[in-house]
Amino acid sequence: MAMLKRTERSRKLILDAADEAFRELGFANTSMEEIATRAGLTRKTVYNLFSSKDEIAWWLIARVEAGDEAYRVRIEANEDVRVLLEKVFLDSAGWCLANPSLARLALAPTERPSLEPPTDRPSFQRLVRDILVLGQRQGVIRTDDDPNFMSLVLLGVYGQAMLTALAGGPFSENDVKHIIRIVIEGIGEKSLPSLT
User: Fold this and answer.
1) Would you list the domain boundaries of the chain?
2) Do 24 and 14 touch, CB atoms closer than 8 A?
3) Does domain 2-62 have CATH number 1.10.10.60?
4) Mean of per-residue pLDDT scores for the chain
5) What is the pLDDT of residues 142-168, one digit of tens each?
6) Contacting residues for 101 by C-beta, under 8 A, at least 6 apart
7) H or E segment to which residue 116 belongs
């Protein structure tokens, strides 16, 4: 039991140290040695708990994604979907701009996302999907399409906008609202016939 507590304490020290180093130095300029030094641990201990700097980064991203309880409460309270989507994406944009190194990894993953959100961990994709399901129940999100697919479309548009912002492009609260409006309302004129 004491060993488990020490391991978890060491993991937390490593994650906190890496988070600080990535923010200050950037992901590419942070070494495992730097993380170990900041955590007050040996490099061997860091490698015993994490196989690489990439793994540490993914744990940090997962730690952020696990913090969705407040949004889940708002989903349960049947909050207006447009307001909730704005809040979720504004909060995410704030995190991305404050953590550019990790945000680039999260926004441009090496693996193609699957239609279904991962089942083994919290994910931003699942949160967005669940908000869209709420919107379907509220009658403001189309019900003739799969919410998993629609969440990937929304996340794709948002991800590209954030990558542009991280590359030095302009990005504001109004940009998030604009993205959500365009995705929800669509880009075509309402008088256009359906393609199906």
Assistant:
1) 2-62, 66-185
2) no
3) yes
4) 85
5) 999 999 999 999 888 888 888 988 888
6) 22, 23, 26, 27, 28, 30, 57
7) none
Mean pLDDT of 80-94: 90
The pair phi, psi for residue 20, each rounded to 5°, is -65, -45
CB 102 within 8 A of CB 60: yes
**What pLDDT, in 10s, does the model give residues 98-138?**
888 888 888 877 677 788 877 766 688 889 999 999 999 99
* pLDDT of amino acid 5: 85
Taking Cα atoms as reference points, which of 176, 175, 173, 124 lies closest to residue 151? Answer: 124
Whole-model pTM: value is 0.77
CB 75 within 8 A of CB 134: yes
Q: Cα–Cα distance between 145 and 70 in angstroms, integer? A: 27
Alpha carbons within 13 angstroms on the beta-carbon side of residue 169 total 10
Question: Please, which residues have CB within 8 angstroms of residue 68's CB and are 6 or more apart in sequence?
Answer: 122, 124, 127
Q: How far apart are CA 30 and CA 146, in angstroms?
A: 40
Enter the tokens of residue 186.
């669509």
